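Observation: inputs received (chain + 5'-O-(N-(L-threonyl)-sulfamoyl)adenosine).
Thought: call the complex predictor directly.
Action: predict_structure
Action Input:
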Amino acid sequence: MINIKENEELSVLNHSGAHLLAQAVKHLYPDALFWVGPVITDGFYYDIDLGSKKLNEEDLVSIEKEMKKIVKDGKRIVRSELTREEALEKFKNDPYKIDLINEMEEDTVITCYTQGDFTDLCRGPHVESVKEIKYFKLLKVSGAYYKGDSKNKMLQRIYGVAFYNQEDLNEYLKELEEAKERDHRKIGAALDIFMSHDLVGKGMPLWLPNGAIIRKQLENYIYEKEQKLGYHHVYTPCVGTVDLYKTSGHWDHYKENMFPSMKVDEEEFVLRPMNCPHHMLIYGNEIHSYRDLPIRIGEFATDFRYEASGAVKGLERVRCMCQNDAHLFVTPEQIGEEFKKVVSLILDVYKDFGIKKYKFRLSLRDPMDKEKYFDDDDMWNMAEDKLREVLNEFGCEYHEAIGEAAFYGPKLDVEVKPAVGPEITLSTCQLDFLLPRKFELSYIDSNGEKQTPVVLHRAIFGTFDRFTAFIIEETKGAFPLWLAPISINIIPVNNEYHLEYATRVKEILEENGIRVNLDSRNEKLGYKMREAQTRKIPMTLILGDKERDNKEISYRLYSEKETTTMKLDEFIEFINLKIKEKK
Ligand code: TSB
Ligand code: ZN
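Observation:
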């Protein structure tokens, strides 16, 4: 799906779409006040204060009608510049715009755009006339806190999208419908993968048995890979004392993303937002020689983060998450080699899951602004060169985000686009020159001297939560055999004659560790077949006279019409191989 924000022409058009929307709302609701109306990946929105009036779908239809009227009227969109005083005077009755003006830097050129009877404070640019905003659609309305803060007033956010012609708009709306069908929240509910409940809380999904199977498969899969790569897995508590997070620096720099602390006896705890401090302590528990490095400490670790209530989304953005985390302790010379192993693992995993659409984003330091970063010029230069070198070696395309490195080191993120909403980061690998110092970690080098290791924070799946959300959308819920909650559904053609054989086949498959369901309900074959499709079970066995008499099975794959018959023995071999190869 096209990313409107990244397309220059569509960006301008959609921004003008937001103004058109605001003008129409102002016509229909003269008391309306407007906060911001930006362009987003999926079009535009405007946050509006309508007092006690709550908009519904029908209101959107009326607003759209009004927008069409304004377009027909065809006013030009005219830019004007204002001094700060003029702007403050012009918008003196509008607290939101006053707020925006006050937030602007002293030397900002304040501009307004006027179309007919409507003027909005705006940086622009815009199309020349409202006539150009002919092909648009309002998509939905939802609540949004002023400045995204739940302590503030709830505004109403109207979403829309605009194109330069009807075909593009139609195509986009069609894709949008398909995307909604792919939304992991919808599929997750339909296939009983996860649920949520107000009594547990926002952003705290409950994994249902089907979801738990998928998650366990993911855990086993990545655990095995990490074991082969020399990772040591640990278990650590999902709380730490405030002092731990003061030592790591999170208390000073990450506090707004953390849950508030709680006192127990004399100790003050926080639910942890990250696992690095715990892993630093584990590394520090022993004396290390350079010969022991790299040391790789991995954990499937539960973390808690405060995410704005408007931002939480299914399994994709949660407040309680489980990271596929590891901290790799290396000498500076080992950075390149270890980073290469991480990238190789990422590529390997994405290949196994058939993930093809993703972007590498390499966040580097701004060399013009060195004071902003951990002070070790040689280390930065060496590390950044190594990261580039590795990505080039793999032939990976990547975007260099200059100035976006963290204070403590450069990083690589892998970004993907979910069915609905803006891009998200799945995998990440972040270099850290600082944290080992904060915890006074060391290794003894070949001259017998103490040195500080460098840490690579890395999460291949990111979190199991987010990765599962993404895989649900990639597969539309039709998981491969090895991942599906039920891999094989068995249907006896007639319970009276074929149930015994079907039961035997089920037992044999289960002995082979395969997840099977025997559908022995007294329902028609066609009905059972259709239901297996709805449940998106990857494979269905149909067992009748012929199969029973010849010790055979007939199988049909999800969404296919063809049936294949095989000897039972052969089938067991075939299916074991398929599952092992993760096909
Ligand atoms: C990799 N300390 C590092 C770790 O060692 C760390 O926490 N990095 S992180 O902050 O980038 O988080 C790791 C991954 O968790 C992200 O790449 C992202 O895929 C996933 N993630 C982050 N926030 C959320 C969230 N709210 N819900 C689901 N997944 C999330
Ligand atoms: Zn970390």
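Thought: report the result.
Final Answer: Residues 8-28 form the longest helix (21 residues). The chain has four domains: 4-175, 194-236+275-475, 239-272, 488-581.
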